[in-house]
Design brief:
0% strand, mainly alpha, 69% helix, 134 residues
């Protein structure tokens, strides 16, 4: 789903934004010079969440993180919509998947308490997990 639907929607909506600027720099948009940067911020937040959820397996922090990813996607879609309405609507479709993912991540956290019966904290804490960079 991600590779087949979400990535092309992001690429096409960014192409529409590029064309709206007459093939010019994204940062030269008269409506909002930082429009593309909002998508980059969303992607950065998403990558951070991906590490927390899939590498470190910190379920509680992943719940908070996925909602940050969803909010950043909504904001990026809104900013795209202000420049090119169709681009904003297309980018907004990714929010549907992220809303679904938010529910799934929240339920995964709720259904998987720690061995002591408590749930993982919703905020980052120092724990047993060690992230290693290659």
């Amino acid at each position: 789903m991600w590779i087949l639907i979400i990535a092309p929607l992001r690429a096409y909506s960014s192409t529409l934004l590029y064309q709206a600027n007459n093939g010019g720099c994204f940062l030269c948009s008269s409506k909002d010079p930082a429009t593309i940067l909002w998508l980059m911020l969303h992607l950065s937040i998403g990558d951070t969440w991906n590490t927390i959820n899939n590498v470190e397996r910190r379920l509680g922090t992943a719940v908070s993180g996925i909602y940050a990813v969803l909010l950043s996607s909504l904001f990026a879609s809104y900013k795209y919509y202000q420049v090119v309405p169709l681009a904003g609507k297309l980018l907004g479709l990714t929010c549907l998947w992220l809303a679904t993912a938010s529910v799934l991540v929240t339920q995964t956290w709720w259904l998987n308490p720690l061995p002591n019966g408590q749930r993982d904290k919703l905020y980052p804490v120092v724990g047993d997990v060690q992230t290693r960079f290659v």
